[in-house]
User: Which sequence fits this backbone?
């Protein structure tokens, strides 16, 4: 499978715990995006990387959120001290260039109890 | 800021009839517009895009969209709907910095036999 891969698919955690999600983009795609989607809404941009550099972060990305893309390959999104409001689908996408199609993974659904 | 609006929460169509899912946009500069489809518990799948060129854009699964600059619209169309087209459809516009996507809230399409 050469598509965007996200793990885990589902994550249930208790409020206050830390969680980490992983995204493996399509090989050789140098741009990687994270979005968050809540029920009944369209995806909202969180942050993006060009290679290993994190170039933009949305105001939605509070200090509890951190993302990395070491060596410009896979990326991780960590949420510290989770809150119930963090419950959402977290989507990762990659694209080969800037003005281009973004290919999405199946997402990680986070439930904070 | 670049934004799109999807005025309909739900569109109902009988199988075999033409379908239209509406999208209007608000941008500064040239719009880069996209349509994606989302099936339950799945990520987003790319349907088509408008960057420049012909106003009628053909995409995957028989879908097409018409870019109308005077009406600032980018409606998704299909001449003959299938039950399997039932899904959630998102219109998106590329941001003018960073190239992430701003999505509409989505339109649920229901095609009945």
Assistant:
């Amino acid at each position: 499978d050469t598509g965007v891969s996200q793990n885990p698919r589902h994550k249930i955690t208790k409020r206050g715990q830390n969680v980490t999600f992983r995204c493996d983009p399509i090989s050789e795609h140098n741009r990687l995006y994270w979005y968050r989607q809540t029920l009944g809404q369209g995806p909202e941009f969180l942050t993006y990387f060009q290679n290993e550099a994190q170039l933009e972060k949305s105001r939605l990305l509070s200090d509890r959120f951190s993302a990395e893309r070491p060596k410009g390959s896979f990326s991780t999104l960590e949420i510290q001290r989770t809150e119930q409001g963090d419950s959402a689908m977290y989507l990762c996408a990659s694209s080969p260039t800037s003005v281009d199609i973004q290919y999405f993974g199946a997402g990680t659904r986070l439930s904070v109890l | 800021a670049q934004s799109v609006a999807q005025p309909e929460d739900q569109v109902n169509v009988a199988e075999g009839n033409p379908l239209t899912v509406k999208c209007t946009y608000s941008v500064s500069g040239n719009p880069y517009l996209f349509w994606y489809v989302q099936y339950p518990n799945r990520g987003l799948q790319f349907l088509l895009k408008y960057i420049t060129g012909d106003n009628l854009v053909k995409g995957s699964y028989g879908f097409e969209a018409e870019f109308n600059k005077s009406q600032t619209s980018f409606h998704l169309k299909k001449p003959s709907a299938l039950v399997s087209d039932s899904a959630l459809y998102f219109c998106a516009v590329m941001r003018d910095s960073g190239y992430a996507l701003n999505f509409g809230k989505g339109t649920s399409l229901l095609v009945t036999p």
In short: Chain B has a mean pLDDT of 93. The longest strand of chain B covers residues 87-94.
